[in-house]
Amino acid sequence: MDTKHIDSWNACLRIFADIIDARQFDTWFKRIRPVSLVGSTLTVEVPSDFFREYLEDAYLDIIRKTLKRVIGADAKLNYIVPAVRNQKPMTVPEGPGNAPVNMPISVSSGQPAGNPGPFVYPGLTRIRVNPRLNPLYNFTNLVEGACNKLAVSAGENIAAAPGKTPFNPLFIFGGPGLGKTHIAQAIGLRIKEKYPELTVLYVTGNEFKTQYIDATTVRNKLNDFLAYYMKIDVLIIDDIQGMSGSGNQTAFFNIFNHLHQNAKQLILTSDRAPVDLQNFEDRLLSRFKWGLSVELTHPDFATRLSMLKNRAFREGVEIGDDVLEYLAGRIQTNFRELEGSLISVIAHATMTHSDCTVDLARRVTEKIVGDDIGTVSIDRVQKAVCEYFNITRDTLLSASRKRQIVQARQISMFLCRNLISNCSLSTIGAETGGKDHATVLHACNTVTDLMSTDRVFKKYVTELEGILAPAR
After folding, report:
1. What gap in Å lies between CA 40 and CA 28, rounded to an integer?
2. In what order do the strands lie in the sheet with 33-38?
């Protein structure tokens, strides 16, 4: 067996180890695998393109001189990046060919309408509908947790039998960055995978409204517009709150009725629950409630940490658990900010040729969510309670029924509800060992009652509030 490439690379590693800081050497050089040595060209395998770019940016001169010393003056280095395998989230498609396509559909119309597409209304006999689905937004890439488990489960059921489950329409609602678009498109992608003959279409509420205005005022082709949408098998409308206005709602009402009566699947998302939608006709709001309405809540700590680990793996960067845990505890609002904070930390480390440390993560997140000092978070409250009662976080979040643990857990939930603005009972429960909102409400009522009858218990709560008071 030819081992020239291994021997040559090992010789290079010995030189690198003498020149480069030990931590940097372990992070950036130990993970490189020699593949072959052909002539003076050494081929090595690196985890990712990001990894390669960092090596060339930070250590190109050292690598070049070392290779010339070991292999010779004509030494060259060739990189290969393997496909990421056995990785659940963040799968990158090979190219645009992976995007799903719909079969042509027939639409009758009085006059030709040119070259139709998802925003051009049909007048030809057979047209192709672009499903407008992003291959990245699939179930494989979705990090599942208590915050979205019901929506994911319902979505998988719908994908198995679109239009034939009780979940029609599926109405997904929640704040920004919680994964509404991802889940909705994942359902569409799974349906196209299982039933390629079905026509799937993804649009936003604002796009639908714009198309309606164009069809009625510019093109005068309302019949084409309605016929186009009534041919869709799976209609996904994202951010349906953008569909305010009586005219387009009437059109959508007719489309909704037609699709639903013909066992076609409707998937709707919104930033608020159906009951909270403004300027919508009552007859539409009642139909939104026909199927399943499911709320996406803020991801709990375990889900946030899982997402960070998987994204770091995809980037080919080893980041310490202490850094990831800090980010997961610091960014509690949504996946979008969480992912952005991780990318920012990696970028800062790359540009400054430094390690990804907790201190760096702290400085980066200050620009995203503000300084740690002066703010209250669920993580901060739980840490304060754990230190006060001398227990571990795992113990606090466990199912232990010991009196001291139960009281500490109830106090932490009470403090979260009273010290953190805009923090729902569901979010507090999810962060406290997966409790439901009823358990959190019961805990808060219990603490309030005990404070009025138990002087020592009231002292616990008051002192903890004093510890957290500077952050209020």
Report:
1. 23
2. 33-38, 41-45, 76-80
CA 76 to chain centre: 40
Ranges 114-128, 166-180, 348-362: which has the least confidence:
114-128
* Exposure string for 392-427, b = 16+ CB within 10 A, e = fewer: eeebbbeebeeeebebbbbbbbbbbbbbbeebbbbb
Burial degree of 373 (CB within 10 A; 0-12, 13-18, 19+): exposed
Residues 6 or more apart from 220 whose CB is under 8 A from it?
Answer: none
Work out the end-to-end distance of the chain between its first and last CA atoms, rounded to an integer number of angstroms. 67
Q: Specify the pTM.
A: 0.59
Strand partners of residue 79:
44
Q: Which helix (H) or strand (E) holds 239?
A: none
Task: Quote the distance between the C-alpha of residue 137 and its chain's center.
Answer: 9
Length of the chain: 472
Sheet holding 234-238, edge to edge: 200-204, 234-238, 265-270, 170-173, 292-295
Q: Is the pLDDT of residue 371 over 80?
A: no
